[in-house]
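Weekly structure sync, notes
Attendees: PL (lead), two postdocs, one rotation student
Agenda item 3: pending single-chain targets
PL asked that the sequence for the first pending target be pasted directly into the notes so everyone works from the same version. It is reproduced below exactly as submitted, 284 residues in total.
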Amino acid sequence: MSATTTRQRGRGQRSRVASVALHTALITASLISLFPVLFIVFVSLRGRDGWQEPTKFTGFDLSNYTHILGETKFLTWFGNSVVVALGATVVGVLISATAGYAVSRMRFPGQRPLMWTFLVVQMFPMAVLIVPLYTILGQLELLDSHAGLILTYCSVSVPFCAWMLKGYFDSIPAEIDEAGRVDGLTPFGTFWRLILPLARPGLAVTGFYSFITAWGEVAFASQFMSSEDHYTLAVGLQTFVGQQKAEWGLMTAAAVLITVPAGLVFFVAQRHLVAGLTAGGTKG
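Predicted structure, written out during the meeting:
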């Protein structure tokens, strides 16, 4: 056997070992990531008190789900969350797209301070913003309303989304704007008919971020929503926790149902996520 063949086999052997090690690490990481989710599903199928003996593999039923859907206001909370999350996504992405496009294509006084303001806003924790936002919504008579919560979530998501979309618009050739003007389109017509279709990956990323931000947020919703009929899911789940006892069976069943819309949104947007994140992260 020649030395060249031996070296090639050695390289191949090392490559197979590395491949096995890599796949083992990935499978292990996947199992670790999936375990909490599977455990929650398992507990949700064990009845109201099944969480007290999580190691038993008997007594499976759908009593937690039927109780939540039939004897609580879960569907009302679910509808409120859908309205708020979709409203925050549509309004937030529209504002972010127009702001990002304006900063990317136009030159105007205060352009750089505007973008720095977007960046600085992201540094404030939510706890610091609750009091001023509560005061503003109270003056606008938007407390305990879906519109007020939508505006609140837009104030959180728009700065990040505008930064990301600005980077994505920078990656689209400016010649397309010039071609639109030659064809007689207005600046908004160029933006709406030519640029936005090309920016779908970036819009998918920002839309997904805006939806997830609004769908799972707790702090603002807990403080700004006071009537049970206006609760979102994050607030409604707190009613399952009392001073003496927590209904963990109901909470796990609700958690499983809550993940379904988020999973559907991710499934719809996932083919654009990698392209959108890459473009938004590499262009400045």
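Discussion points:
- Residues 3-44 form the longest helix (42 residues).
- The CA atoms of residues 105 and 177 lie 9 Å apart.
Action: rotation student to compare against the earlier draft before next sync.
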